[in-house]
Amino acid sequence: MAVWDKKVLWSFTVLLAGAVAQHVSYPVTSACAVKGSTVTLPCTFTFQKSAVQHGKNVSMKIRRVVWCKNHEICQGPTPSVYDSESKTKHRRFQYLGDMLGNCTLQIRDVRMEDNGTFRFRMEANVENQHFTGKSGVNITVIGVSKMRINSSNHERQIRRGEKVTLQCTSVCSFHQPEITWFKDGHTLQKSGSTLHIDPVIAKDSGNYTCAEIGRQETSSVPYTLQVEEAGKDDYLPLIAGVVPVVLLAVITLILLFFKRKRAAAEDRSDVGGEMEQKHADAIYSNIMPPSEQEEVYDRSQTSQAVEDVSYASFQFKQNKQKRQVREAEDSVVYSSVASRG
């Protein structure tokens, strides 16, 4: 009896360990899909590497994977959207996973009947190791979903030189569709959900829209971007930097002007010293009394007369000496002639 109890306990322990090891993970448990779009359901799973079967330890392998809709365990005759053992393949449902741990499913051209909960089931080579992820992924399908533009700048009026980022998103999608951008109705050479404008210039003003590629009906409501010219406050740093430079230049010019003016004044004072002295004498004579002026005039006349007499006497003496030298030379010549005759 005790031996049987031990076997039962061992079997229960192995089954419990296997159950704990089996696991399916859905990163996204609910999603909103647009009719006609493509939806990807991320999924991963883990399983026990070995299990006991008929009293023997058997290496575990996954031999079948199934995706079904609106069934709790995807077992038996339950309709499936994908079955790895089925020869019938649904073109709209593609299994992107494998038998090792990836169970991702992609649904193309989503239809209204795709509303529901999708679950994944894995089946191993040991019957008691089959497992279904019961939480599943709930899909809600709607007709047409307009795209929406979100801006990194809450103000639609942006100053020139700033930067802005526009994000195109769908109000009903957990995946990121392929996006086309438009400005004033013209297609931009930019794809992707994000539009960066850096730096912003005047010609960037306009109405921006985005839509899924090939689906113009998903076009967003226009987002108006208005680029403002730089305000007066934007010039304050420039003014603050220019004013000191201009002020310094003006002060330098003033100092240079006075320096040159002073140098010119000194040159004029040196050259015109004598003229200033003569002018001073003339001014002094003009301010003398008449009697003193006559006395000064008489003295100047007397001095001039004395200078004339001295000059005349000097000239007379020179002329007299010349005559004496000439007479002596004539006498010599005469006596020489007389002696020869």
From TrEMBL:
Residues 1-21 form the signal peptide. The keyword Thylakoid does not apply. Keywords: Membrane, Signal, Transmembrane, Transmembrane helix. Pfam families: Ig_3 (PF13927), V-set (PF07686). InterPro entries: Ig-like_dom (IPR007110), Ig-like_dom_sf (IPR036179), Ig-like_fold (IPR013783), Ig_sub (IPR003599), Ig_sub2 (IPR003598), Ig_V-set (IPR013106). The chain crosses the membrane at residues 235-258. The keyword Transmembrane applies. It comes from the Eukaryota. Residues 145-210 form the Ig-like domain. This is Junctional adhesion molecule A-like. It comes from Stegastes partitus (bicolor damselfish).
